[in-house]
């Protein structure tokens, strides 16, 4: 039996109990270290995600409140605003946001590498590209009445929505400036500025929309005036902040480098747009497909209620998407590949925990929440019936946007675009149509099949993320900063 105090070659020998105690102490120290890492990264995450979620909700609420006021004006006005917001502006929003998402990769990695001056160059370059994209999208607004009628919308609603879309064209060009500014500020973690600006504009938008649309009776014209003013006000206030503060050196004035290597920038922007649009439009198509089912009125109303709830939940997901893309791009740009990996783990655990909570809330309230949106017992019953699919959609969408954010932060947009095409449009969509129409499962079949596509995409992204060589990604980030920085990279 070993005695405490015995020595061998001048080294004290430990008893088995002392060895076990020492091992336990080492394990406890490792555990404390991991908990410390988790808490550190969680704090960093919420510093970005919290304001980003608030900003997303505030900006989403502007369109929702306008739609609510339009419903007080009349049924035709409500239909016109709804169609323009969900179809015309929705399509443009997806394209413009997607094109600007290239900045999340480039600005985030440049900031992490300490090349702050490059952020201003990148933002200007994105303005050039998005203004060109906005010009290409103007026919969507100009011929929106004809486009909506081609999709089966009644002539009266299509003409009203088309008229409103023409008035909303200034919003399209506001997007061209807003999204690059948003990514520019996010990359530096200046999300509180965006939150305060969005909150102030939302309050102003609410008051003036009520005055113009209801008190003065301007109807759709008042809605268009306030939405355009609100979006441009967000752009102007954020731009003033950048010009006045110089954004800690990230803005160094206008530069001809904005026009350098535009083609390489366009390719990454298009890949980002394709990736994001394939995700945003996927569930939007659900309402269109359900509308083709026999006796679609009740299913369409039920799915619309579920999509409304899912839309609000998506604002939380967008916040985490922004947070993880910033954290991953910053850390990779700085060469801290181990911290980037820790960031992915922490945000995945956090978002899934919130998603699971939302999953339980949907299931627990499935018999009551439909009555908050409809007075029809038939619609409420159908909504309750399909709420189980909504619950799983909410759960999956807690992780899926996070993995997409990782892809944006690391610059995997092209790869994820191919994954999305395969999972969503070659598997999920055909499966939904087959189950809904061929096997007569109706809305449950259509939505269930499409959720299968999300499951497959999420599983593939988990595998890709798990097998990633983060050191190699950090090396590629540094190479990317040098490639697209122009002469600014050497300053």
TrEMBL record:
<keyword id="KW-0472">Membrane</keyword>
<dbReference type="GO" id="GO:0042910">
    <property type="term" value="F:xenobiotic transmembrane transporter activity"/>
</dbReference>
<dbReference type="InterPro" id="IPR045069">
    <property type="entry name" value="MATE_euk"/>
</dbReference>
<keyword id="KW-1133">Transmembrane helix</keyword>
<feature type="transmembrane region" description="Helical">
    <location>
        <begin position="218"/>
        <end position="244"/>
    </location>
</feature>
<feature type="region of interest" description="Disordered">
    <location>
        <begin position="1"/>
        <end position="28"/>
    </location>
</feature>
<feature type="transmembrane region" description="Helical">
    <location>
        <begin position="265"/>
        <end position="292"/>
    </location>
</feature>
<protein>
    <recommendedName>
        <fullName>Protein DETOXIFICATION</fullName>
    </recommendedName>
</protein>
<feature type="transmembrane region" description="Helical">
    <location>
        <begin position="415"/>
        <end position="437"/>
    </location>
</feature>
<dbReference type="Pfam" id="PF01554">
    <property type="entry name" value="MatE"/>
</dbReference>
<feature type="transmembrane region" description="Helical">
    <location>
        <begin position="191"/>
        <end position="212"/>
    </location>
</feature>
<feature type="transmembrane region" description="Helical">
    <location>
        <begin position="127"/>
        <end position="148"/>
    </location>
</feature>
<feature type="transmembrane region" description="Helical">
    <location>
        <begin position="87"/>
        <end position="106"/>
    </location>
</feature>
<feature type="transmembrane region" description="Helical">
    <location>
        <begin position="342"/>
        <end position="364"/>
    </location>
</feature>
<dbReference type="InterPro" id="IPR002528">
    <property type="entry name" value="MATE_fam"/>
</dbReference>
<feature type="transmembrane region" description="Helical">
    <location>
        <begin position="160"/>
        <end position="179"/>
    </location>
</feature>
<feature type="transmembrane region" description="Helical">
    <location>
        <begin position="384"/>
        <end position="403"/>
    </location>
</feature>
<keyword id="KW-0812">Transmembrane</keyword>
<dbReference type="GO" id="GO:0016020">
    <property type="term" value="C:membrane"/>
</dbReference>
<dbReference type="GO" id="GO:1990961">
    <property type="term" value="P:xenobiotic detoxification by transmembrane export across the plasma membrane"/>
</dbReference>
<feature type="transmembrane region" description="Helical">
    <location>
        <begin position="443"/>
        <end position="464"/>
    </location>
</feature>
<comment type="similarity">
    <text>Belongs to the multi antimicrobial extrusion (MATE) (TC 2.A.66.1) family.</text>
</comment>
<dbReference type="GO" id="GO:0015297">
    <property type="term" value="F:antiporter activity"/>
</dbReference>
